[in-house]
């Protein structure tokens, strides 16, 4: 399972989370990558998680 490897790259994921809400994510990513090249370790994991879809269906009982 992909999630088992998260503890190994917890710091790198936290660095990447600084991109959340960025108004210029591409240039911010370039700056981050140049300052912290170790974040490249978490890219394959992020891509793998992104590819996985989790669908949730909520069914409610309706009393008539």
In oligomeric terms, what are we looking at? single chain
- End-to-end Cα distance, whole Å, is 43 Å
Described by the principal axes of the CA atoms, the overall outline is globular
Radius of gyration from CA coordinates: 17 Å
Average pLDDT number: 78
Helix content: 40-55%
Q: Please state roughly what percent of the residues sit in beta strands, choosing from under 5%, 5-15%, 15-25%, 25-35%, 35-45% or over 45%.
A: under 5%
Largest sheet: none
Structure summary, number of beta strands: 0
Secondary-structure class: mainly alpha
Order of helices and strands: HHH
Q: Could you name the ranges where pLDDT drops below 50 across 5 or more consecutive residues?
A: none
Tally of individual helices: 3
Structure description:
The protein is mainly α and 64 residues long. The chain contains 3 helices and no strands. The chain has helices at 10-16, 25-35, 43-51. The protein is globular. The model has no long low-confidence stretch (mean pLDDT 78).
Which helices and strands appear, and what pairs or packs with what?
Elements: H1 10-16, H2 25-35, H3 43-51
Give the structure's gist in a few sentences.
With about 60 residues, the chain is an all-alpha fold.
Features:
single chain, 64 residues, mainly alpha, 3 helices, globular
